[in-house]
Amino acid sequence: MSKILVTGACGQLGVEIINGLETQYGRGNVIASDINEPGDGLTGVPFEFVDVMNPQQILGIVKKHKITIICHLAALLSATAEKNIDLARKLNIGSLHSILTIAKDEKLEKVFWPSSIAVFGPDAKTDGTPQNSACTPSTVYGISKVSGELWCAYYYNTFGVDVRSVRYPGLIGYKSLPGGGTTDYAVDIYHKAVKGETFECFLKPDTRLPMMFMDDAVKATLDLMNANPDGLTVRTSYNIAAISFTPEEIAASIRKRYPNFEIVYKPDYRQQIADSWPDRIDDTVARTDWNWNPNYDLDTMTNHILDNLSDFWKY
Ligand code: AKB
Fold this sequence. Notes:
By secondary structure, the chain is of the alpha/beta class. The chain has 2 domains: 4-169 and 213-239, NAD(P)-binding Rossmann-like Domain (Rossmann fold, 3-Layer(aba) Sandwich), CATH 3.40.50; 170-211 and 243-312, UDP-galactose 4-epimerase, domain 1 (Alpha-Beta Complex), CATH 3.90.25. The chain has 11 helices and 16 strands. It has helices spanning 14-25, 55-64, 78-83, 85-105, 140-159, 185-195, 214-226, 247-255, 270-275, 284-290, 298-313, and strands at 4-7, 30-34, 47-49, 69-72, 110-112, 115-116, 127-129, 163-164, 166-168, 170-172, 199-201, 209-213, 238-239, 243-245, 263-265, 280-281. The strands form 5 sheets. A 6-stranded parallel beta sheet has the order 3-2-1-4-5-8. A 3-stranded parallel beta sheet has the order 6-9-13. The chain has a 3-stranded mixed beta sheet with strand order 10-12-14. Helix 1 links the parallel strand 1 (4-7) and strand 2. Helix 6 packs across helix 11. The protein is globular. The mean pLDDT is 97. The site of 2-amino-3-ketobutyric acid has 12 residues, from strand 10.
């Protein structure tokens, strides 16, 4: 029977992935871990405090719970990483290295590790960035993701570690607060709309970025984890795409429900990060290899979030 450890469980993606994994593997078979206290979203989920920069701690939990699969989500996102270079290197790359080593030594069944559209930099094609476009990022976070992808492929090719990965676009959910990403303006904006506040955007109105609703991100993760390994042709990380929009387009989508919603623009250092990333990603290889297909467009996502956000946070 599979037993899954999820690191970074308190982050943006953690709670939602854990819900998805529990549906598939059953409560009790998914162990949440983080350095932070678990919030309400993890009530009833077995939880362990784990600092992923300490390999002995990870190994201890793997042995204690007889873990067979690790879903390694703990990382600094782009904006935070740019301000904390050393921590980003230790956390984003060091911890992946420890987990790949543990997976090899303990003969784990599988590892999932998220990469990002941040692997692409100014040398990549901007519109419809193909799977094999140049990966020469100009950000600390992007460098950590390219390096991680290459380590994943190395551990697969050399030691047979079944590690799978997707390049997430900006992920947008309502069950946790934004966590230091450049795309996180598109999470924050819904909170301000529901509270009736003006949103101050740190990107310019026409900054187009690849994005995805959280439910689609969870679906992509589970679909890839469940895919037949024989069909997987990419062992670095798969491009996946869903929506692509600008701040002024998401504001227009929100105004269909909140006509008085206001946005003002005050670009900061995150503009440069966003400018180095693609506008739109080509995910043909993921669609071919494991039938990836998203469900949400901008307006269906906006409606779903606005229908649920105020109840979730009791605004
Ligand atoms: C970020 O903005 O840092 C992340 C990402 C695109 O990986 N959401």
